[in-house]
Design a protein that fits this description.
The complex is a heterodimer of chains A (106) and B (175).
Chain A: E1 11-12, E2 17-18, H1 22-33, H2 35-48, H3 60-71, H4 74-105
Antiparallel strand pairs in A: 1-2
Chain B: H1 9-17, H2 27-40, E1 44-50, E2 54-61, H3 67-71, E3 73-75, H4 82-87, E4 91-93, H5 106-109, E5 115-122, E6 128-136, H6 144-162
Antiparallel strand pairs in B: 1-2, 1-6, 2-3, 4-5, 5-6
Chain lengths: 106, 175
Amino acid sequence: MNISHNQSLQAIAEYNLVEPSEQDARAALQRVFGAADGESRWLQACAESGLRSGLVRPGDELERAASALGLQGGATAAVARSILIRMRTFYRIASRLNNTSARASS
Amino acid sequence: MSADPLYAAQRLQEIVDLDLLSSEVDPILQDVAARAAAHLSLPVSLISVVLDEALHVAASHGLDGLWLGETGGHPVEWSFCATSVRTREAFVVESAVNDPYHSTNPLVVQDGVRCYAGVPLISSRGFVLGNLCVVGLQERQFTEMEIDALRELAASAVQRIEARRVRSVEPTERS
């Protein structure tokens, strides 16, 4: 998956969207699997993607962690897909709105 | 853990077991979506898979050139289809701008969705996977016959989906 990131935009008011974060991913896992099991799956994903839990940055690093979560299979893969869809939506709409405002100001 | 069926691990496992997150487009499911849109004379139809935090588009008709066609889904809080995961019933919105929940939905406010009708896709194990739905850009009334037609098409979609069931789940895999 190739998600185009825009580091400068952290929220899109028109769509009531904020840039997906590590905290969002961990909360999603805990909602489905419970606190301890959800955290265990997150730690495993971080270890397998060479990232440190608590220090995963939005964008490329979160995408790597979510992709590693997807490889755990089962319901974890479904949660991972949710995270990736939310990321893809945020960056796609951010890109479209940026292009619109660039055209308007040129 | 939440008691909301949206977040049930068993339901999400069922979605994976049925291979519904595959990137391969199933031409039969695409055809079901196209037939739904044509039958109700609406521009867009989806076979949606409702995940915990997002809607995943498993098959569709009418998304060419739209951002949803590129992202393959959207946040679950925008999803009309999520209602059926909770109610297990058809969900109809004839005027989205006047709907108490969806009147502020960005798909309505920003992207012009005005009407929606969806029926749940329920697996043989009893899990609501998502919906077969149609979406329009003008307010519209739906007849019971139209909803019944959607139900028939949804049944054929479920039949196709069940044929994809992954029969061998890794014994070490956690659900």
